[in-house]
# Entry
Amino acid sequence: MTIKMQAAVVEQFGKPLVIQEWDIPVPGPGQILVKTEACGVCHTDLHAAHGDWPLKPKLPFIPGHEAIGRVVGIGSGVTIVKEGDRVGVPWLYSACGHCEFCLSAWETVCAEAQFGGYTRNGGFAEYLLADPDYVAHIPAGLTAKDAAPLICAGITTYKGIKVTEARPGQWIAISGIGGLGHLAVQYAKQMGLHVCAVDIDDGKLAHAKNLGADLVINAKTGDPAGVLKKETGGGAHGVLITAPSLPAFKQGVAMTRKRGTCVLVGLPPGEFPVPLFDVVANCITIRGSFVGTRGDMAEALAFAADGKVKADIELQPLSKINKIFGRLEHGDVPSRVVLEFGTN
Ligand code: NAD
Ligand code: ZN
Ligand code: ZN
# Structure
């Protein structure tokens, strides 16, 4: 094994990432070393590199929380995975395991949670450390590159749809048909929902239609709430907002049916106005949703292993990361870019 690895590093917020040679980390007690095969590029990585959110990562850091690879090193005391296993290192990198949230299978909101590619170095590198208790177990039959987008974009939208509480036969509106949204359309169809896809790009909407969306609306040129209310007799029972854009949030609340639930998943920096009277008088629920638990992860991956959900991916090398970020920022990535690493 060589002792150096290539990594794409954020040295300063808002500046291009720098490709550097770092020492391959050595797994300590309770840790594993994973050799990266593939890592998806999520819009969250862009927010991280820009320092968009109140809780900022410590510089320098290596982004990437859709890393899939083989376990190549095991620290003392690790029994749950073995060398050669294929695992995913997700956003929920670790949690305390004993607080009220961890005990009730809400480890995503544990106060001690660490985040992959954010508070811990992530998968924009040839190797990374992981906590074996929190890695995703990749089902046989799923390739690394196909699995990568599922461990953030997949789990987040699958969980987000669940917490809309929309039931089979009802309507869900999905705002933002990018990396997250194109998977959301597929999960929602598999869960028996009628799907309305909303985006500002006709290409993304055509894609949503191909993936089974029953209705598509361009939020730039059309009136999503008006059209949806007319077509569905009152709006969507569930709304999932993945768009990294504030206007989509106000629109999302307006698309929600009386007694429906609007789930916020996109994370543009800032705040959005809530029309209090409409929300109160229509008994609307507005709910945040943050990735998913280990239980959600196994379920989200099972859909893909059964061939029911498939990410649309574009493969790129690590060296292209700044170009990819530029495209992501301008909405020019059709679905998901996955960084592919060498096979040896
Ligand atoms: P992406 O760039 O791949 O896709 C975003 C999509 O939104 C694009 O198709 C774009 O055209 C569309 N869009 C932009 N403005 C819009 C508008 N006004 N109305 C409708 N659509 C619009 O991004 P992604 O990787 O899918 O991530 C989306 C957001 O979700 C980011 O903010 C990311 O940080 C966040 N995210 C949240 C969680 C969570 O756990 N809550 C997890 C992963 C990502
Ligand atoms: Zn993500
Ligand atoms: Zn905890």
